[in-house]
Design a protein that fits this description.
The chain is an alpha+beta fold and 351 residues long. 41% of the residues lie in helices and 11% in strands. The structure holds iron/sulfur cluster.
Length: 351
């Protein structure tokens, strides 16, 4: 625990550093922009926060720009065709987020007259908006003094306080300590500042402590052991699931089918295949037609959050296009927004 005078000092030092060196991001209103009369747009901030979960700023930025060009307002997004949203989302992964984006936009259109709710508590009621995103939008856009905690903040806080309890078990303790530092004034700037500090200075493997505005108060640095924190419980090895996928071709086209809405890659286009689980005993029973299927040599490996997937790929040539599904011309395949694992299957079938 820090003394109140130290906390005030930490807040002032961090905000002064942010005023000088905070990142310039396309969805961000910098303090000088705000002084010039600009306000943060909750729609733009929400989009950026959802996209930035599980990916980096350089990767997410072109997607964010494309979405804002095609759907300039939350109502435009709510009125959009879901397949179009999934197509634009392809490559960002974790497709449930895109489906929730659409659902959430619909709720804001229908239940909030197209206007984002202004409090953390109300934002939390929306589909796909969790504690971090609600706290971030409320602080950045509506000046609510929330406690913004993401992975970057957890790392900084773990070092400042030298927290010995490991993540993820002790997450509530990290949250509580982060809350002791969060100020009532300029909550949005503070939240963005501490996230910037974690992203650019207090990095996981080589923190630049000499450039850190908090170096004088950092317990981990005092012991020269910043990278010992945050403590983490060793991850168990991911379980492996198996399956088979079928690439059926005819006339420079491949057969695709839409995956069921529920479950992984829900609603996305993909190649027909078996369920994913134990090694299928008779994979060809799940093939879209009875053909002379050739098994490709390479096994597709793909890591999801909770398991590793290994897929055998089978290929065959159809006599015609009478089999049910969408026959996608290979030259236009990028328009079908295939998830990464499906792109790997196609590439193995081409080898
Ligand atoms: S002094 Fe180093 S370890 Fe401590 S918060 Fe700053 S960058 Fe992180």
């Amino acid at each position: 625990m820090k003394k109140q005078t130290d906390i005030v000092h930490l807040q002032e030092q961090l905000l002064a550093w942010y005023d000088r060196q905070g990142r310039i991001l396309p969805w961000r209103i910098r303090p000088e922009d705000r002084d010039a009369g600009q306000a943060a747009d909750p729609y733009a901030v929400w989009l950026s926060e959802i996209m930035l979960q599980q990916t980096t700023v350089p990767h997410a930025t072109p997607y964010w720009q494309k979405f804002l060009v095609e759907f300039p307002t939350v109502i435009d997004l709510a009125n959009a065709d879901r397949d179009r949203i999934l197509t634009l989302w392809a490559g960002l992964g974790y497709y449930a987020r895109a489906r929730n984006l659409h659902k959430c936009a619909g709720v804001i259109r229908d239940e909030y007259d197209g206007i984002f709710p202004r409090t953390e508590a109300e934002l939390l009621k929306l589909p796909g908006i969790g504690p971090y995103t609600a706290a971030t939008i409320a602080a950045i856009c509506f000046d609510e003094a929330t406690n913004i905690v993401d992975g970057n903040v957890e790392r900084v806080v773990s070092r400042i306080f030298k927290i010995e309890a490991p993540l993820p078990k002790a997450r509530s303790e990290y949250r509580r300590l982060a809350g002791t530092l969060a100020p009532q004034k300029r909550p949005g700037d503070y939240g963005q500042a501490i996230m910037d500090l974690g992203a650019t200075i207090c990095t996981p493997r080589s923190p630049k402590c000499a450039d850190c505005p908090w170096q004088g108060h950092c317990e981990a640095l005092k012991q020269s052991r910043p990278t010992d924190y945050p403590k983490k419980v060793k991850k168990a090895k991911l379980p492996v699931r198996h399956g088979a996928a079928f690439v059926l071709r005819h006339d420079e086209c491949v057969l695709l089918r839409r995956r069921p809405d529920k479950g992984l890659l829900g609603g996305m286009m993909g190649f027909p295949g078996t369920d994913w689980g134990d090694i299928p005993t008779e994979p060809l029973k799940s093939a879209p037609i009875n053909r002379n299927w050739e098994k490709c040599e390479t096994v597709v490996k793909h890591v999801f959050t909770h398991f590793e997937l290994r897929l055998d790929v089978y290929r065959a040539e159809a006599m015609d296009k009478s089999v049910n599904g969408v026959w996608a011309p290979l030259k236009d395949i990028k328009d079908f927004a295939l998830p990464t694992v499906m792109k790997k299957i196609l590439s193995v079938s081409n080898a």
